[in-house]
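Translate sequence into structure tokens.
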Amino acid sequence: MARYRGPRLRVMRSLGTQLPGLSAKIWDERRPYPPGMHQGKHRSKPSVYGLQLKEKQKLRFNYGVLEKQFKRYVANSFNAKGDPAQNLVESLETRLDNVVFRSGFARSIPQARQLVRHGHIRVNDKKVNIPSYAVTVGEAITLSKKAESLTTVQYALENPSLLRPDWLEGDMGDKMSKMVAKPSKDSLPLKVELKAVIEFYSR
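Result follows.
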């Protein structure tokens, strides 16, 4: 499946926010305008649709999912019981590649996805190589012996991009992480208006 492989800092600057899942690099907030030769000048005020689209793109790029897959997550969030925004957060945050990233085993979701694809991740001691696998409460995530010796993994464990959230059990630097609760909207690692995202797909 195709993934975005272009300049990551350019995406963050275009959307005006840090996307920790996309890259561990920090974009220069001293230039709070989109890329381009006009430095944000002569730009008209964005429409409601434009603002909603921007919020949706934040989630898509942060979690590295394509539009078709993202629409499926949104559709499922509407069909499930409860708050659609909360349901959407749970679907995105419990993806295996994101859990690997939030556990501190990788510095970004693309790096975590590579670990999963190469068979370096165990879920309850069983190899799982599907990045979109939905981790459930009670499941433990561990690294393979080979992964523990990888330079990128060792660096990630010593220099985590984010603190491990409270819905994952285990101290930073641990090579085991267990999901002890469902992630909440407050645990999102980026600034995004979830209401705008839901309204975008409610048209």
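Note: The beta strands are 121-123, 126-127, 140-143, 168-169, 176-179.
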